[in-house]
Amino acid sequence: MKEYVLNSDEEEIKRFSKLSGEWWKENGAFAPLHRITPIRIEFILKAVNEGQKYSIAEERPLKNLNIIDVGCGGGILSEPLKRLGASVTGIDASETAIQSARLHSKKSNLEINYLVGTIDSLIEQKKLYDLVIASEVIEHVQDPNDFIKGLKKLVLPKGKIILTTLSRSLKSFLIAKVAAEYLTKVIPVGTHEWKKFLNPQELETLLASDGFRVDFINGMTYKINSDRFVLTDDLSMNYAIAATYFESTTI
Fold it and tell me: What's the first-to-final CA gap in the chain, in angstroms?
C-alpha cells in the first residue's frame, strides 16, 4: 500500500517530540504559532464562508463542519476550531505532542478526537471530511506531492483544503531561518529547512494536479505597529491557501 504520510520525516518528529512540554507556553518554543493562530482562524472562516453556506456572524460558525487538523501538534489550532463549533479530529505522528494536546483539551473541557499516527489509518477507514487543514506542516514533510495526494483522500467532493506555510524567498530565509533561529532564538535551531519551503506558485501547481481548484491565497503579514498578523497580498513570507476539491481533475 502506498504510504501517504504526514510523510513523516523521523528527524522532524523527534525534534518536535522533544518540545512536548512547550506547546502551551505562549512565550515558549511555539510562540510564533500562538501569535499567528488568530489570523489562521480568520482565514479559515473566510474560506468556509466563501460559499455562503456558513455565516461568520454566527456564534459557532463552524458547527456544521467535520474538520481534520493534520499535523495538529499540541492542539494550538484544534482548540479554537472546536470552540467555533466544529467536530474536530487532530492527528500527529508525535505521541508526546498528542499527549500534550489531550491533556490541555481535557483541562479546557473540549471534546477533540486526537489520534497518534499518519493519515494512512484514516484513508483505510475511508473517513472523509468537509475541511482538511494542514497548517505549518507541508514545509516539514519529505515529499509535498505525496502529502497532497494523501490529503486529497480525506476530502469530501467539493470539500475544502486549507494549507498555511512559508514561501521560499530571500525574505523568509533571512527572517524565518537566520533571524528566528540564530539571532533572536525565538524558535529552536533546526526548526525549519529553508529548501523545503514552497512558493505559492509551486503549491498551486501541486493542488491543481490533484483535482483542487484554488479559491484564494492570502499572505499572513506581521505588523509591528499593532503587534499582530493580518491578511495581505504579500506572499513572500507566511501565506495561506484555500482550495476546493473536485473528483475529476478537469475543473
Answer: 28
Q: What confidence tens digit (pLDDT) does each residue in 105-122 have? A: 999 999 999 999 888 888
57: which 3 cell numbers? 456572524
**Is 250 a residue whose pLDDT tops 50?**
no
Instruction: Copy the grid coordinates of residue 172.
Output: 523568509
C-alpha cell at 7: 510523510
Percent with pLDDT over 70 in the chain: 78
Calculate ∠ Cα 154-102-92, nearest 5°.
40
- Decide if 63 contacts 56 (C-beta within 8 A): no
C-alpha span between 207 and 148 (Å, rounded): 7
Q: How many CA atoms lie within 13 A of 188 on its CB side?
A: 12
| pLDDT the model gives residue 103 | 93
Q: Supply 146's cell numbers.
A: 505525496
CB within 8 Å of 233: residues ≥ 6 apart: 218, 219
pTM for the model stands at 0.84
The gap from C-alpha 230 to its chain's centroid, in whole angstroms, comes to: 17
Side-chain half-sphere exposure of 223, counting CA atoms within 13 A? 11
Q: Which CATH class is domain 10-245?
A: alpha beta
Q: What is the pLDDT of residues 169-227, one digit of tens each?
A: 887 667 666 566 666 666 666 666 767 889 999 999 999 999 999 999 999 998 888 88
Per DSSP (E only), the strands in the chain are 66-70, 87-92, 113-116, 129-135, 155-166, 212-223, 228-232, 238-245
What residues form DSSP beta bridges with 134?
163
